[in-house]
């Protein structure tokens, strides 16, 4: 299943089941899994992902447990990008130490909510330490913001098609994607509003290298009696 990136909160489903879900995604040929250190009250996420984060937090999921999943689960092809919130998880940590831990456990790093005053140092230290970065931008961001995200992406560029999960129209991303190509050599992935096989096809038709599927994947596992089987069926349905 080339050209697919999925999202989950670490700890939802529980870590023992999550490890088997990760292996199932690997077997299915998914390119990347964005595995989030759960954090509360995300303004960019819809109710499905917020419920998932709350369940994971209530179960005790934290940075240490999430990094352990990244490093301990045997993977052949699937890459894992750690997603962490700057204010909730990272701000209180020593930056170089945090980056070194990520580099040793995961294949990429996506930081949510980095304030502009901290972004330059974050990019500089991550590049110096060799941490592959997933940078983010919105389709409606200024050209300067889009180009900055493109220049600093070293894993892939996450291009959000709208301001919140579920917003936006992935099919209308072609001009933005084309404008980014001269500024980066990494894959460009489109998320927000990508839920179905038709949405995935529309993202690829617009020129993106990958489609990011979050809420609908989380929803598919939310009440599933067998999350591993549900994950396999969900990926198969995107083909």
Describe the structure.
- By secondary structure, the protein is an alpha/beta fold.
- It has one domain (4-237): Alpha-Beta Barrel (TIM Barrel), CATH 3.20.20.
- Helix content is 46%, strand content 17%.
- It contains 11 helices and 8 strands.
- The chain has helices spanning 15-28, 47-58, 63-72, 86-90, 95-105, 116-129, 143-152, 174-180, 197-205, 215-222, 227-237, and strands spanning 4-9, 32-36, 79-85, 108-112, 134-138, 156-160, 188-191, 210-213.
- It has an 8-stranded parallel β-sheet with strand order 4-3-2-1-8-7-6-5.
- Helix 7 links the parallel strand 5 (134-138) and strand 6.
- Helix 5 (95-105) crosses helix 6.
- The longest helix has 14 residues, at 15-28.
- It starts with a strand and ends with a helix.
- The relative contact order is 0.16.
Notable characteristics:
TIM Barrel; globular; alpha/beta; eight-stranded parallel beta sheet; 239 residues
Low-confidence stretches: none
Strand tally, please? 8
**Shape, please?**
globular
Supply Rg. 16 Å
Strand content: 15-25%
- What is the CATH C level class, in words? Alpha Beta
Task: Could you tell me the CATH topology label.
Answer: TIM Barrel
What fraction, in percent, of the residue positions are helical? 40-55%
Number of helices: 11
- Which sequence of strands runs across the widest sheet? 4-3-2-1-8-7-6-5
| Total of domains | 1
Order of helices and strands: EHEHHEHHEHEHEHEHEHH
Largest sheet: 8 strands, parallel
Oligomer: single chain
Q: What do we call the CATH homologous superfamily?
A: Aldolase class I
Distance linking N and C termini? 7 Å
CATH architecture: Alpha-Beta Barrel
**Global mean pLDDT:** 93
- The secondary-structure class comes to alpha/beta
């Amino acid at each position: 299943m080339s050209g697919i990136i999925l999202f989950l909160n670490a700890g939802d489903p529980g870590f023992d089941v999550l490890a088997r879900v990760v292996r199932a995604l690997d077997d299915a040929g998914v390119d990347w899994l964005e595995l989030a250190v759960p954090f509360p009250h995300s303004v960019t996420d819809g109710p499905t992902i917020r419920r998932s984060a709350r369940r994971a937090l209530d179960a005790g999921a934290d940075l240490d447990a999430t990094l352990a999943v990244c490093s301990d689960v045997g993977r052949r092809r699937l890459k894992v990008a750690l997603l962490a919130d700057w204010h909730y998880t990272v701000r209180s940590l020593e930056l170089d130490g945090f980056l070194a831990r990520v580099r040793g456990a995961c294949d990429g790093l996506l930081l949510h909510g980095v304030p502009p005053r901290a972004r330059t140092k974050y990019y500089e230290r991550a590049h110096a330490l060799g941490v592959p970065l997933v940078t983010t931008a919105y389709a409606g961001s200024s050209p300067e913001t889009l180009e900055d995200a493109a220049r600093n992406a070293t894993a892939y560029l996450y291009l959000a098609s709208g301001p919140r999960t579920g917003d936006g129209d992935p099919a209308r991303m072609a001009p933005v994607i084309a404008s980014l190509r001269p500024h980066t050599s990494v894959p460009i992935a489109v998320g927000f509003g990508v839920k179905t096989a038709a949405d995935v096809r529309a993202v690829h038709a617009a020129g993106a290298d990958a489609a990011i599927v979050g809420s609908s994947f989380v929803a598919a596992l939310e009440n599933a009696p067998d999350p591993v089987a549900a994950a396999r069926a969900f990926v198969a349905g995107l083909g």
